[in-house]
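Figure S7 source data.
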Amino acid sequence: MHHSIELAELYVRLGNVSVLQGVNIEAKPCEFISVVGANGAGKTTLLKVVNGILKPSQGRITVLGYNLSHYKNLNFLRKEIGVVPQKSNSNRFPICVEEAVLMGRYGKIGLMRRPKEPDWDKAYEAMKAVGISQFSKKLVPELSGGEQQKVALARAIAQEPLILLLDEPTTYLDQESRSEIMEIIHTIHHQRELTTLLVSHDDQLVEQYSDKIYLLKEGKGYLIK
Ligand SMILES: Nc1ncnc2c1ncn2[C@@H]1O[C@H](COP(=O)(O)OP(=O)(O)OP(=O)(O)O)[C@@H](O)[C@H]1O
Ligand SMILES: [Mg+2]
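Tokens for the predicted magnesium ion complex:
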């Protein structure tokens, strides 16, 4: 069986900075992998490479068995990758929660097509899984930071991806909400048999949920669990 995500000897340069310098990371199907590291270590950069947004200067990236360098258009693969970004611009738009979550379906149905009943069902299932059904009609900008994080998570889940990428899903949250959202992520990871790659600066928080943890430091990745 192939790995769900495999980064081999990955080098990434941004401007004149060598952000990643020979990183090796593997996630088998259904594994929960965390990457930790200080601010600026290259964690967000790493996720962008996995998602095909950034091209490495060297190295191989394989996602669900596809070598990314062999494809010009990666949309077919992005449909299988749910992303919870570090900062979500979409939280500023005055749309209600259920519409924001439904947007997770657009990658699958296409922007020009109208969502159908089953798409709404997936959106409602995702809201239920994340625990935000009770404020489905509220406007996203009126929610707290923690609630907005849950909306972003529900949107990614509504997409029904095989791979879930999470960029600091617990930033701006208090200790209790951090543990709560990590529990939700972990439960969904198991229920939906996802391969999850989470990046965080909080190595203590991810410890109990991760099958493996890598530390990113000075451009290199170290397996620390
Ligand atoms: N477009 C860019 N051009 C030049 N340098 C960049 C660019 N984007 C990011 N960098 C630099 O690359 C390094 C890694 O950035 P990255 O955002 O991946 O870090 P991070 O680990 O996610 O940090 P944080 O914990 O603060 O989110 C940083 O030094 C950053 O300044
Ligand atoms: Mg980052």
